[in-house]
Amino acid sequence: MEIDWAQAHEISASVSSGGITATAAIEAALSRIASRDNTLNSFAAVLRERSLAKARALDAARAQSKPLGPLAGVPFAVKNLFDIAGLATVAGSKINRDHAPATADATLIARLESAGAILVGALNMGEYAYDFTGENVHYGACRNPHDLARMSGGSSSGSGASIAGGLVPLALGSDTNGSIRVPASFCGIFGLKPTYGRLSRGGTFPFVTSLDHVGPFARSVHDLALAYDAMQGPDPRDPVCVDRPVKKTVPLLDRGTDGLRIAVAGGYFQKGAYPEAQTALRRVAQALDANAEIDIPHAQAARAAAYVITASEAGALHLDRLRERAADFDPAVRDRLIAGAMIPAPLVVKAQKFRRWYREQMLALFSNVDAIIAPATPCAAPRIGQETFVFDGAELPLRPNIGVYTQPISFIGLPVVAAPVPLTPLPIGVQIIAAPWCEDVAMRVAYALEQMGVAGARRPEPANQPDKERGLGNQSTGRSCRSARSIRALRAGVRKQ
Amino acid sequence: MRPSKRESTRRKANRTGSKGTNKKMRPAAKEVADEYVDAGAKLLELSLPPAWRDSVIGNLQTTLRLAASFADFPLPDESEPAPVFVP
């Protein structure tokens, strides 16, 4: 086992069998963070003392032959909207730095630590989670480990970059409209957005309570499933969290896809997709022998309704802060929030009524299919600083439109695994969408793709690895997500030839 | 007794999924959005310096343009919003 790219289940097995100590595993993670994160910019806080104390306690427990848990000694980190006892929950903002320190850990941190995992830090994110880029005016851009000049994606930017960069094997993030699936796609790793209400949001800073989900990131489906299984269960701290029986997914992973009816989302979900997104979707469809194309009706309206609910609830959530400290927001977030606070109420009510209607249509679709595959993002990671992109022939603002394919799915809380297709020069993700409470189906499909070599978290090339001596490393000319200006330049070049 | 005209329209909507009107929501004209945002900022007690105003108006117009795709979607009066409160 090479500790610097080891997966969570490998570390746990080694710690449990005495191959390495938990202290050694944590020291290695802290060392990677110290040496590499100055360029990735994925960590907001590092918990050196706390994590080493937990590791020593775990090693002592092993010496006494006590049970260690399925994630024994696995270092993990969380988006900094999860409460960590003793730290202010910053949520990517400047304003929340003034909050009192949290008095307890978020529920999911406690559950992962009960399974033996060890929290090593808090991760950067887009301000108040209203972001798809990974850029943050207060803390700088989080960088993509496959090309440091490119976006990590957001809003769980640090979660994506820290996993893809090999700093930790397991991280938590949140997803309201795509904030797990977008960074998973751009950074080329696995992410799980579970069914709405499946995992507790207890002890997290909210964004849009109607749509907020939390979930894990990892470099393998096995690790995703281990973490998910350790975190399930009701929680009185989150009234949305359901009281359903725990459904373990690890034992189901190797059941394969036999008997599963898998279709490709057509229409809206392929309109505007860049060549890399089409290639990834085609490879996945071919590997799964998914020949049927399915039309998800009114996906555009679903996306619009999610957009309206998001803006309205977020505007209401932050209204007092907008009154008192508007200048302390990221301007791009602030102006969306102010506009959101002014959305006429009838539109918000209609959006919520449409949401129930749309859910019924989707549930009817799932009587004929078990899983639907769709692109996660229209393109691979754009360059940091890029503000617009060409989508379906029109130049659009990049920031709100990266989530065009993710929003209609989270709108009704369907479980999704974002599975990375390791294209070169940049990876890109595909969504594997299942019926409510069928995370196991999405993970079985993702696991099968991983076993076939179609999906997988590719290690960044050494030339792209963060290195303070080299500064920004690779400046790839990868042909991904293009702005109108770059397309005009390309066309001008062609004409000159 | 025959149902009133309004009642028969409502029953028809329930059967057909139509709300019985063809009036479409149109995107707000620029001057309407300008006035709405200025008034809304006063109502909500939000300061709106000139440097932010156009961006806020642009964001609201984008939202309203998107909302037009579902605002007139035919649903019966009795349709329930998605969130359900359990006492």
User: What is the overall pLDDT average of chain A?
Assistant: 94
Percent of sequence in beta strands of chain B: under 5%
What's the end-to-end separation of chain A, in Å?
Answer: 52 Å
Largest sheet entry of chain A: 11 strands, mixed
Question: Cα-atom Rg of chain A, whole angstroms?
Answer: 21 Å
The oligomeric state is: heterodimer
Largest interface: A-B, 38 and 32 residues
Shape assignment of chain B = extended
Whole-angstrom Rg of chain B: 19 Å
What class, by secondary structure content of chain A? alpha/beta
Low-confidence stretches of chain A: 466-479, 490-497
Count of alpha/pi helices of chain B: 3
Describe the 3D structure.
The complex is a heterodimer of chains A (497) and B (87). Chain A is α/β, with parallel strands linked by helices and 497 residues long. Chain A has helices at 8-17, 22-40, 48-63, 107-114, 157-164, 181-187, 221-231, 275-288, 299-317, 319-325, 331-341, 345-365, 398-401, 407-410, 439-452, 484-496; strands at residues 43-46, 75-79, 118-123, 143-144, 147-151, 170-175, 190-193, 213-218, 262-265, 293-294, 371-375, 388-391, 394-397, 416-421, 428-434. Chain A has an eleven-stranded mixed beta sheet with strand order 1-3-2-6-8-7-14-15-11-9-10, with helices on both faces. In chain A, a hairpin with a 2-residue loop joins strand 4 and strand 5. In chain A, helix 2 (22-40) runs antiparallel to helix 3 (48-63), helix 5 (157-164) runs parallel beside helix 6 and helix 9 (299-317) crosses helix 11 (331-341). The model of chain A is unreliable at 466-479 and 490-497 (pLDDT under 50). Chain B is mainly α. Helix content of chain B is 55%, strand content 0%. Chain B has three helices and no strands. The termini of chain B are far apart. The interface between A and B is medium-sized, with 38 and 32 residues.
